[in-house]
Write a structure and sequence with these properties.
Largest sheet: 5 strands, mixed
Bound molecules: tetrahydrodeoxyuridine
Low-confidence stretches: none
Strand content: 15-25%
Structural class: alpha+beta
Helix content: 25-40%
Number of helices: 4
Distance between the termini: 46 Å
Radius of gyration: 15 Å
Mean pLDDT: 96
Length: 137
């Protein structure tokens, strides 16, 4: 797995961020198991809560093309801040649903790169197991 290329692709995706409010650009890229690079960038909104983060756009884009967690090799999330951007709480919840717990996630600002998994970023997550019926009441 060429993490350097994946991070470069995420920086290319960052160019398309739409950030008139925060001016904070974030890029993301999913690498699929058949070798496709699927980009995402943060897209903001005047109704701030309607903003969508870069990593969710990238992973939703992969799912919209029919890829599922077993076909996602890796995810990169990049920004131009002093330190790599860590995914927000909503993104962690979405990634815990849509990525395999062991899939590598590279967080980078171009200087520092940190490798994590969603299991590390969101321990004790709420998921489909919690909605199964046999739990008593
Ligand atoms: N943002 C992302 O796109 N991903 C992250 O991991 C952190 C935050 C965006 C949301 C918003 O457009 C801007 O960064 C500032 O919060």
């Amino acid at each position: 797995m060429n993490e350097k290329k994946l991070i470069e692709k995420a920086f290319e995706a960052m160019e398309y961020a739409y950030v008139p409010y925060s001016h904070f650009r974030v890029g993301a890229c999913v690498l699929t198991s058949d070798g496709n690079y699927l980009p995402g960038a943060n897209i903001e909104n005047a109704a701030y809560g309607s903003t969508m983060c870069a990593e969710r756009n990238a992973v939703f884009g992969a799912y919209c093309r029919g890829y599922r967690k077993n076909e996602i090799q890796a995810l990169a999330i990049v920004c131009e801040g002093k330190r790599p951007a860590a995914p927000c709480g909503s993104c962690r919840q979405v990634l815990s649903e849509l990525l395999d717990p062991k899939t590598p996630i590279y967080l980078s600002n171009g200087e520092i790169t940190i490798e994590k998994t969603i299991a590390e970023l969101l321990p004790m997550s709420f998921g489909e197991e919690d909605l199964k019926e046999e739990q008593g009441d």
